[in-house]
Amino acid sequence: MSILGTSSYAGATALPEPVARAVELAAGAGFDRSCRPEHGRLLQALAAGAAPGGRIGETGTGYGVGLGWLLAGRRPGVRVVSIEREAERVAAVRELFADVPDLEVVHGDWTAIHPHGPFDLLVLDGGGNGKRTAAADPERLLTPGGTLVVDDLTPLTTWPPTHRGAPDTGRSAWYDHPALLTTEVRLAPDLATLLATRRP
After folding, report:
1. At how many degrees (to 10) do helices 87-96 and 17-28 cross?
2. Residue 69 class from Cβ within 10 Å (0-12 exposed, 13-18 middle, 19+ buried)?
3. What is the rounded distance in angstroms from the CA atom of residue 190 to the CA atom of residue 2?
4. pTM, whole model, 2 decimals?
């Protein structure tokens, strides 16, 4: 979730239909922590890589903007599961995407994603929901060769990684995880994402 993320869509045109619907819902709810467009376009491209019969997972549904990007990119037959801890948001997004097949929006904390995996693509979102420490086990949650996205990071400027003058153990945990090959992608001057692939 990105600060001022929903506001970043002001004046945007030609958004994929599910994204436009979710942005309108988020704005109407006064929720301004949606996935930014730079990150959304990346999610759309990554979602297209899941083969029919595969699975995409997301933690931190919010009001469905990031989910909309995933839905815009996924191919028919790919199942999508999104987890959200706020019941009001779950109800709103379920209603918003009630017509979308192979989608489940689950109420719970991020650990509710476990029984729905393993995933070809897993997006860890929503503050500390499985991303600030390596609490999310990629060997359990990803298929071999599957992709993990850890979003909404300040771009890396030093090595080893630091955050507010201290070691950035949340970021290092993904770089150092023996089951993952991890890199960082800068999406904007103030926004970066970690991309990791589970080793076969």
Report:
1. 140
2. buried
3. 11
4. 0.92
Residues 6+ apart with CB under 8 A from 155: 184, 186, 189, 190, 191, 192
**Which stretches of the chain score pLDDT less than 70?**
1-3, 126-134
Predicted pLDDT of residue 112: 93
- How would you label 16-47 residue by residue, b for 16+ Cβ within 10 Å and e otherwise? bebbbbbbbbbbeeebebbbbbbbbbbbbebb
**Inter-residue contact 96 to 64 (CB < 8 Å):** yes
Alpha-carbon span 87 to 151, nearest angstrom: 23
Cα–Cα distance for residue pair 11/99, rounded to 1 Å? 27
d(CA 47, CA 69): 8
Place of tokens 């909404």: 152
Q: Is 193 helix (H, G, I), strand (E, B) or coil?
A: strand
Q: Is 6 exposed, middle or buried (0-12, 13-18, 19+ CB in 10 A)?
A: buried
pLDDT value of residue 131:
53
Query: For the segment 29-56, what is each residue's pLDDT rounded down to a tens digit?
Result: 999 999 999 999 999 999 999 999 999 9
Q: Where are the alpha helices (DSSP H) in the chain?
A: 17-28, 37-47, 65-73, 87-96, 138-141, 169-176
